């Protein structure tokens, strides 16, 4: 409501902006009786950790800088007729990181883990640090050459001796048999 009141007070120059703002759902603020400036009203609505999960859309750099200082408030702005969602601020990123680490293990469980470690003697002692032993390793097997095969005294490989090829024998028909067959055919 404070933003609409401010747009009304600025006159005809921002009449179009006022019509656009009236189309959206109007949120009631605590300044109902005595309205304040639009930026002050928006900042008061997101003060306590942004409980209603509001997005702030503004072209005002001062308001944008103030919003970036608060964690968990998305910021929208317009560049050449396009709405752009600004990247999360460093405060928001740090807040999310803190939430994630706290959600992994609750605080009371962390304390009970520390107590149990102390009982069992597993708690880290500052003076005692273990070093890992370096083990001697062989050469890289990919960088080694393959071993050469040994040759026999004759100069042939042993595998050649084992394999003997069979030679195919031709059955030659004797010339006399051929001549006799030819004579039988002529008669």
From TrEMBL:
Keywords: Nucleus, Ribosome biogenesis, rRNA processing
Any one of the GO CC terms: small-subunit processome
Swiss-Prot/TrEMBL GO biological process terms: rRNA processing
Record flagged with keyword rRNA processing: yes
Basic and acidic residues bias: start-end ranges: 117-129
Pfam family, one: UTP23_sensor
Basic residues composition-biased segments: 162-172
Highest rank taxon of the organism: Eukaryota
Localisation per UniProt entry: Nucleus, Nucleolus
Main localization, broad class: nucleus
Domain UTP23 sensor motif region as annotated: residue spans: 130-149
Role of this protein: Involved in rRNA-processing and ribosome biogenesis.
PANTHER family: RRNA-PROCESSING PROTEIN UTP23 HOMOLOG
Assigned protein family: Belongs to the UTP23/FCF1 family. UTP23 subfamily.
The protein, known as: UTP23 protein
The encoding gene: Utp23
